[in-house]
Amino acid sequence: MRSQHRSIPVIPKGGLLSARSEGAVPGDMSHLTLAPVDLPSPRDTVAVMSTAPELGAKVAEALDMRRSQKVDLLHVQPGESLDQLLAPGLTAVIAEIDPAEGGLARLKRLCAIGPNAPVVVLMRGMDDDTMLAAIEAGAEEVVDITPAGTFNGADLANAVARALARHSQDGRPARSGAGDAKLAPAPLMLVQEAPEAMVVLDRHGAVAFINPAAEELLGRAADTLMGKRFDLDIGKGGEVTIVQPGGETRVAEVDVVETERGGVPARIASFTDITVRRKLETALKTAQGGRDAALKRSGRFFSRVSHDLRTPLTHIVGFADLLQSDRITDPQRRQDYAASISDAGRAMLDMVEDLLSVVDAQGAAMPEPCDLAKLVRNTAHFLSRADGGPEVVVDAPQGALVARVDLAKLQRALYRLVAGIARDADAGSILRLSLRQAGKQARLTVRIDSLDGRPVALPASLEDSDPLVTPADARTGFAAELLREALDAHGGALQLARDGGSVVAAVMTLPLKD
């Protein structure tokens, strides 16, 4: 904003002199008198930015004593918004600053985004360096002010006059009159005060301005970005990922507006931080995925449980009905049927005990560290004690492989499965338990090798799709489901290795403890 006066003299420091009268005698100083400062047209407004309201009165007195028309005064606290300085009709800004209290930073902000009016500084503790710093920050003139808040009124008046003259001669746009209600705030003011992160880019894509919210979002200070090409690919807007220098990742939505700055094409990019929203969405998706997986696992588990419990129960009921009939007269057949009922009952009892162990384990203590190598060796030891079973060979590292598991639940399920696999193995075959570390996981492979070293097909009941026709098969399949449920609960898995159409190995994986 520039005054509308037509001619403003540059007044030398130290006094205000009137023009030389015609016919004056050289050496005659009678024609030299104090004249009013030629500040702009009537009822101009001068803003005084100071923490002390009484300083405004001193400024008004200094200016009014040297001009024909008094000025209107606008007092602004340094910490207040700069909106009021954008009001139409503002002639000049007189700002009191103290370099020791961050005054230069406020001055730089004022000159960068404030009104189009000259800024004259009243500086406390001024020296050559601080005065130069104030000029570099954008001040037109600098006047010394004492710690008590006093200053030379003539110096201030002259400084204002020189600043206005320089402002006029620089060809800056004239300010609008006080009645111009359509005057819009300066674009940089809107960027500076906006709560959203905003960056102004010139036509070459270099940063022309950046507000504090954008500095915080990008994790970089303005002085490291100003004048440099903006290295974030914002295109025409959309969602961008921001990696701060410290490694923190932020996500933002970007709106890009094409505009002009000083008659030159520019772009204003507005960033809305949606990091928290994206984290919440990810957490919800993860929770939903975990819930769906748990429901699927539970559905599969209980479906298998109901199926496997019916198999021995069907044997018990069927053979009991045959024994009740009078048609079975052969003592050997009656004995065989009774034995089948007994086997099915024991199988069902084992499955019920396993099922109850799952219920008990769900209310047991938290998972604890477990040496999987030791667990596998203990399982092999118990299997070796069974009469008529295959030879058990363990291939495991000597060192510990530690996982955090529910030991009772995992140990029972593993033993039941391995025992079920070994139950029908031919004499002389070899049951191999191979434990290996694969990255951050432990991998246990269970297989049976025949006398000639070829893999033997494992019970078909290990597969969900195969029918279960005997109590023994039901017991093995049920044990596999218990182990699968135990592994799933600890981030592991049970997989089946095939050779042709037959299952030849059960492979268990489990994350190792960090």
From TrEMBL:
The keyword Kinase applies. Signal peptide: none annotated. It comes from the Bacteria. It catalyses: ATP + protein L-histidine = ADP + protein N-phospho-L-histidine. GO terms for cellular component: membrane. Keywords: Kinase, Membrane, Transferase. Residues 190-228 form the PAS domain. Its EC number is 2.7.13.3. InterPro entries: BphY/WalK/GraS-like (IPR050351), His_kinase_dom (IPR005467), HisK_dim/P_dom (IPR003661), HisK_dim/P_sf (IPR036097), PAS (IPR000014), PAS-like_dom_sf (IPR035965), PAS_fold (IPR013767). The keyword Transferase applies. GO terms for molecular function: phosphorelay response regulator activity; phosphorelay sensor kinase activity; protein kinase activator activity. Residues 304-514 form the Histidine kinase domain. One of its GO terms (biological process) is osmosensory signaling via phosphorelay pathway. Pfam families: HisKA, PAS. This is histidine kinase. It comes from Pyruvatibacter mobilis.
